[in-house]
């Protein structure tokens, strides 16, 4: 009788325990640093316990893995309502609620209500409107979404075709999506869940257009959820990932809403149809900026989740031979495996520090904006656009590399990596497609560079553009200098400077050659994006170096983070060596030393790899991965996961009786 069972051993896989025993630092200390202190770690643990003591969260994993789209959506609505109820019951603060979203990896059907609808009301509504709509939204008496993108336009907001035409006779707006391409298309939680939507539409008064403004539109009856007259709404179909969310379409046909349903914090329409605006013209774009900042944090969560799975699995998987006399090694011993996974590990910590720094800047600027001071807005818009693009692009790419590094098992849903890649992929597109956002940053950098050239003293993230390039000497003079974090940061800064300088001069040259500005810009778009990427890379490295330098922690924790930071910077130089050489930020000697360092750091990180991902402290249910579980019993968990597979419900699948049996009978009878 076979001894193979699907029970999970109670003990930790010894291969994983061995890794934990040899860590050079205290994992709990690093966990507290990651979560902002011991109290926050404790609070998160309390919330995890509260959530995951409910068996529903375990069952939810099965529906997600094996249910139909409709079952998955229904389970996710249930999950959303459970969490909303708990939020009210326990009077969670916004911060506690954010923590719950992180713990759940946020695949909530009703996610848009909290991530965009409420923040948009907070930013775009007047105090009077807030006391009505925001209160209702926070009490879940209305459920809403943010409906901006249309079938024909997502990026180019001036091209949006939805109209809100003011009728002074009735003091109402008449909402229309007049063409096929005007229908709203994509908004999350729109198709089936929301009964209200914040619709972004072009305001028209007496035939004149006044730009894009937000309008609160009721879509469904509050009694029976039926769609209201003049409204057509539905789900846009299955996606690559994120299928718990009902991204929807919306057609509006002469839907009338009261004048007060235009959110009027930034612009007002008086009862007699006078338009008045205050603040900058882009004030209505505020919600998008908030989410761009949050996407950087999500990118950290995505890549750190991927690194946790990849590293734990690589520590328990044994394959092939290194020493012919020895047993098969853990695949984590292979230098190539480290080379595939450790960049994601280092990136996790880089993005942790960068997203923290960006969030702090956002909060400071937001407080100023609330006081009517908009001076930080352009810098924040460009910084958040660049970092949103950089962090999403790099994290999604890195998690896919980690998925591949797990061999065949990485391809199984039970590994959790495919789902992670597919769920995270839209970070590249949402809240401004990455190329477009990089170009927003490039436009800002070019202006700042021109300012610096004309003698302006720059401040903020672009202050380095006033440097005198003639004073630059590569700060790496010897192989040991390569470990100097400030020197590595200087190399990134100079590479960015030169990349910006080159494209700025090229654009200027093209325009002086009588090329129209838009032609000159389009001719240089690739290099403009390159400049924005170089600037973003510099900012991330700088934030990482400064974050580690400012840390108050034990020597072993600082040492391991400095090693990771050094690896992150060295790896980037090696990976984009062409750019660094071309900009003369490094010479061939320095490049060789840095590449040597990059590879030798793999061996230095290796003994702490498991401890460094343990420090992220992800709950098994959060990670949702047979390969990445804390106990390292990957094979048992893979086998266990097959129990829930509906394919294994019956010994003989119904398709046998329907198709295979008659086919076999026919074949057996055949004389051919
Ligand atoms: C959701 C929570 C999740 C939590 C996760 C927790 C854990 C996760 C871990 C693991 C699990 C895996 C899952 C991962 C999660 C992945 C989830 C992904 C889904 C998230 C769902 C999000 C919902 C998405 C919502 C949306 O997408 S809403 C729609 C967003 N749309 C856009 O962003 C449109 C982009 N376009 C624009 O912003 C603009 O049109 C433009 C391109 C910037 C140009 O603007 P335009 O007005 O047309 O241009 P100009 O007139 O030329 O003006 C330019 C001028 O304005 C300045 N400007 C532009 N924008 C701003 C601004 N926002 N603020 C300030 N200034 C601005 C610009 O700089 C120019 O200035 P100058 O003229 O001075 O140069
Ligand atoms: C999962 C998901 C959830 C979403 N949720 C919401 C939501 O809740 N609410 C909402 O309103 N929207 C939502 N969206 C829509 C999203 O905001 C848009 O898809 C996004 O802004 C990109 O716009 P687009 O689709 O028009 O892309 P396009 O602009 O059509 O991009 C296509 C290509 O054209 C290029 N391009 C476009 N313009 C330029 C330019 N000026 N210069 C150079 N290249 C350019 C882009 O780089 C890209 O390669 C969601 C989308 C997804 C995928």
Automatic annotation (TrEMBL):
Record: active site: 431 (proton acceptor)
The protein's UniProt keywords, in alphabetical order, are: ATP-binding, FAD, Fatty acid metabolism, Flavoprotein, Lipid metabolism, Nucleotide-binding, Oxidoreductase, Peroxisome
Q: Where does FAD bind?
A: 149, 188
GO CC, one annotated term: peroxisome
Tell me where it resides: Peroxisome
Q: Using the record's annotation, list all stretches that form the Acyl-CoA oxidase C-terminal domain.
A: 485-665
Q: Which residues form the Acyl-CoA oxidase C-alpha1 domain?
A: 285-446
GO MF annotation list? acyl-CoA oxidase activity; ATP binding; FAD binding; fatty acid binding
Give the matching Gene3D superfamilies. Acyl-CoA dehydrogenase/oxidase, N-terminal domain, Butyryl-CoA Dehydrogenase, subunit A, domain 2, Butyryl-CoA Dehydrogenase, subunit A, domain 3
The Acyl-coenzyme A oxidase N-terminal domain covers 26-143
Necessary cofactors: FAD
Q: Which family does it belong to?
A: Belongs to the acyl-CoA oxidase family.
Question: What is the name listed in the Swiss-Prot or TrEMBL entry for this protein?
Answer: Acyl-coenzyme A oxidase
> What is the organism of origin for this protein?
Pinctada imbricata
Top-level taxonomy: Eukaryota, Metazoa, Spiralia, Lophotrochozoa, Mollusca
């Amino acid at each position: 009788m076979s001894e193979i069972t699907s029970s999970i051993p109670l003990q930790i896989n010894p291969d994983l325990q061995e890794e934990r025993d040899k860590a050079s630092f205290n994992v709990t200390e690093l966990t507290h640093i990651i979560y902002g202190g011991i109290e926050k770690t404790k609070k998160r643990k309390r919330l995890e316990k509260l959530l995951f003591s409910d068996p529903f969260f375990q069952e939810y994993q099965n529906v997600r893995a094996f249910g139909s789209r409709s079952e998955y959506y229904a389970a996710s609505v249930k999950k959303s309502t459970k969490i909303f109820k708990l939020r009210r019951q326990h009077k969670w603060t916004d911060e506690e609620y954010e923590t719950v979203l992180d713990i759940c990896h946020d695949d909530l059907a009703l996610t848009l209500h909290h991530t965009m609808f409420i923040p948009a009301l907070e930013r775009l509504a007047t105090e009077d409107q807030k006391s009505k709509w925001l209160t209702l939204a926070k009490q879940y008496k209305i459920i809403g979404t943010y409906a901006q993108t249309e079938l024909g336009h997502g990026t180019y907001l001036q091209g949006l075709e939805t109209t809100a035409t003011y009728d002074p006779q009735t003091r109402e707006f008449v909402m229309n999506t007049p063409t096929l391409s005007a229908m709203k298309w994509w908004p999350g939680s729109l198709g089936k869940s929301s009964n209200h939507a914040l619709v972004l539409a072009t305001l028209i008064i007496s035939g004149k257009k006044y730009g894009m403004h937000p309008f609160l539109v009721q879509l469904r009856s509050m009694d029976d959820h039926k769609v209201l007259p003049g409204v057509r709404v539905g789900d846009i179909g299955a996606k690559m990932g994120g299928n718990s969310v009902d991204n929807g379409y919306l057609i509006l046909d002469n839907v009338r809403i009261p004048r007060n349903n235009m959110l009027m914090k930034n612009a007002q329409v008086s009862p007699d149809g006078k338009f008045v605006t205050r603040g900058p013209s882009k004030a209505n774009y505020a919600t998008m900026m908030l989410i761009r900042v949050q996407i950087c944090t999500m990118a950290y969560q995505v890549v750190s989740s991927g690194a946790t799975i990849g590293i734990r699995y690589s520590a328990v998987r044994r394959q092939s031979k290194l020493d012919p006399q020895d047993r098969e090694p853990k695949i984590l011993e292979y230098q190539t495996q480290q080379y595939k996974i450790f960049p994601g590990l280092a990136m996790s910590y880089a993005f942790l520090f960068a997203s923290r720094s960006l969030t702090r800047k956002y909060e400071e600027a937001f407080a100023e904006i609330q006081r009517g001071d908009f001076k930080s807005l352009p810098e924040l818009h460009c910084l958040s656009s660049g970092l949103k693009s950089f962090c999403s692009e790099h994290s999604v790419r890195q998690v896919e590399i980690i998925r591949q590094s797990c061999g065949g098992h990485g391809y199984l849903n039970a590994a959790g990596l495919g789902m992670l890649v597919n769920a995270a992929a839209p970070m590249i597109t949402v809240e401004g497609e990455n190329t477009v956002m990089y170009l927003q940053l490039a436009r800002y950098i070019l202006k700042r560079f021109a300012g610096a050239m004309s003698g302006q003293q720059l401040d903020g993230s672009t202050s380095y553009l006033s440097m005198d390039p003639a004073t630059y000497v590569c700060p790496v003079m010897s192989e040991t200098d390569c470990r100097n974090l400030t020197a590595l940061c200087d190399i990134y800064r100079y590479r960015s400077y030169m990349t910006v300088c080159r494209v700025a001069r090229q654009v200027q040259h093209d325009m002086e050659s009588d090329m129209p500005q838009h032609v000159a810009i389009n001719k240089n778009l690739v290099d403009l994006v390159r400049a924005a990427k170089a600037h973003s890379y510099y900012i991330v490295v700088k934030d990482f170096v400064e974050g580690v330098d400012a840390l108050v922690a034990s020597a072993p924790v600082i040492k391991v983070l400095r090693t990771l930071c050094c690896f992150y910077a060295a790896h980037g130089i090696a990976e984009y060596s062409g750019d660094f050489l071309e900009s003369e930020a490094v010479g061939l000697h320095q490049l060789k030393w840095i590449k040597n360092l990059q590879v030798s750091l793999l061996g230095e990180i290796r003994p702490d790899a498991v401890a460094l991902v343990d420090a992220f402290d992800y709950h098994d249910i959060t990670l949702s991965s047979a390969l990445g579980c804390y106990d390292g019993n990957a094979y048992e968990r893979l086998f266990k996961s097959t129990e829930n597979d509906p394919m294994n419900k019956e010994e003989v699948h119904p398709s046998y009786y329907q198709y295979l049996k008659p086919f076999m009978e026919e074949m057996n009878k055949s004389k051919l």
